[in-house]
Amino acid sequence: MNPILDIQHVTHTFGQHTALQDISFSVQQGEVVGLIGRSGAGKSTLLRCLCALERPQQGHILLDGVDLTTQPERQLVRIRRKIGLVFQHFNLLTSRTVAGNIALPLQIAGCPRKEQADRIAELLELVGLKGFEKKYPSQLSGGQKQRVGIARALAANPTLLLCDEATSALDPESTSSILNLLADINKKLGLTIVLITHEMDVVRRFAQRILVLDHGRLVEDGTLLDFLRDGQNNRTLQTLLADIRPSLPAFLTETLASAPQQGHNKAIIRLVLSGDNASEPLFSALHEQFNVRTALLQGGVTTVGEHLSGDMILSLEGEKTEQALSHLKTAAQNMEVLGYVPSHS
Amino acid sequence: MSPLILKLILHSTWQTLEMVVASTALSVILGLPLALFMIATGPQGLYRLPFAARLMGMVVDAVRAVPFIILLVLLIPVTRFIAGTSLGTEAAIVPLSIAGIPYFARIAEMALREVDSGLVDAVRAMGGTRMTIIRSVLIAEALPGLVTGVTVTLITMVGASAMAGVIGAGGLGDLAIRYGYQRFNTTVMFGVVVVLIIMVSLMQVIGNSLARWLKH
């Protein structure tokens, strides 16, 4: 199947500063992709290139088979109508009502007035703002404004939805509801979504696939599970993952030793589980098979997309701890021994 | 107050209003496109033409640098060419408008510059044409500020029209000078001042409430 979005060797510089360097990736129809990077990593530039506001100096961007980088401005105006954009600061027109804001892309596309009203009602229903037609943006909360922003982005039936830090200006509760809404839209409409953010927590909860941008380069492309598995050896990933991974409490770090000694033999491990593994009765299995007492110190099991995923720090104590550890090494997606602490702690 | 004085004041008020409203209308009609031109050709504009933007800015500043009383005299040939005469109320509308156009253009430029550039980006990204951006974003979003600008221009024109007596345009200012000052008629002087205060206050109140109503 041809990808809906195909980025080939995109490079873009501002004077001396290289914002993007040889970026290549493709996105399939219906995929939800999180694009993450710290500020200055080149996210905004890449976004402006993707929505045809900026023309990259080198490389090609194919949207549904059409190369954005070679189209004249007149054609780009048309192509931009096929890309929905959701902004961090909503960018709603304060002079227009909710309905007026959603109508704008329809007016631009030359949609007849009668159809506009139906489409607006349909979109407001979809984003959960039924009956808000006549309100002005200044009367809405942040989360509601973003819902209007999403409705507006969807109005002209885009082939691609780009979200630029869409939740970064929102409180945690609104963030969750907006992410749920986006996931819902992806499922209902089969719409391809690219979510650009600096928050790992946002992509963790939302994206099936994560792209990591660092200093203008695409350094990683994979699922969160891949990252958790390979995270130890990658500095960029480590810093990003640090936000969302459980970390050892300070009082345990102080007494941590790298090898077991007399009276210092409680193993502390980091365990990554996914899929069916994450719902197994792990603790009782360890007890039955190895007579090992297991305690959960940090972390737990969460859902990533549609799957369960476990990322936790455990302590194991008992005669057959070493056997239990080697069992976990093969059974779990990733197991890392962090060290040993005194058995009484 | 004698009926004669009342009649004089009434007549002059009408002349002043005629000059103020006509010149403000022309200032807005011609000043707004000028402001849009300066914004659009400016550094972050939709049609980047830095040289044209700078040239236009210089012309605007040059006109604004000349005191109105001097402009009034300086423009007599132009007034005669446009209005057919250099004397009278209608003729005074020409120099008043020429002073008002760059004045309103600068105020409108400021109001347009206040519009969040994110909104322009948003509508560009939607596939909006430049005309759509100018109409639906720039003008629509700056409307409360533009209305305030119209109010300020109206009031400035009230002040400027007082000088138009120099070219025989009449009006309240002219009345105050001829009767109140040169003939020591304090009643006329006070009458004129009271009418001016009421006129300006009304303009301000109406302008403010209109701007507030437009600002959702």
From TrEMBL, chain B:
Q: Which InterPro entries match?
A: AA_ABC_Transporter_Permease (IPR051322), MetI-like (IPR000515), MetI-like_sf (IPR035906)
Alphabetized Gene3D superfamilies for the sequence:
MetI-like
Q: Is Ubl conjugation set as a keyword in this record?
A: no
**Pfam families for the chain:** BPD_transp_1
TM helices/strands, residue ranges: 20-39, 51-76, 138-167, 187-206
Task: List each copy of the ABC transmembrane type-1 domain by range.
Answer: 13-207
Q: How does it sit in the membrane?
A: Multi-pass membrane protein
The principal location of this protein is membrane
Q: Where in the cell is it found?
A: Cell membrane
Q: Which UniProt keywords apply?
A: Cell membrane, Membrane, Transmembrane, Transmembrane helix, Transport
Entry keyword annotation includes Transmembrane? yes
Q: What PANTHER family is this protein classified in?
A: ABC TRANSPORTER PERMEASE, D-METHIONINE TRANSPORT SYSTEM PERMEASE PROTEIN METI-RELATED
Q: Which family does it belong to?
A: Belongs to the binding-protein-dependent transport system permease family.
Per its record, how is this protein called by name? Answer: ABC transporter permease
| Species | Bombella pluederhausensis
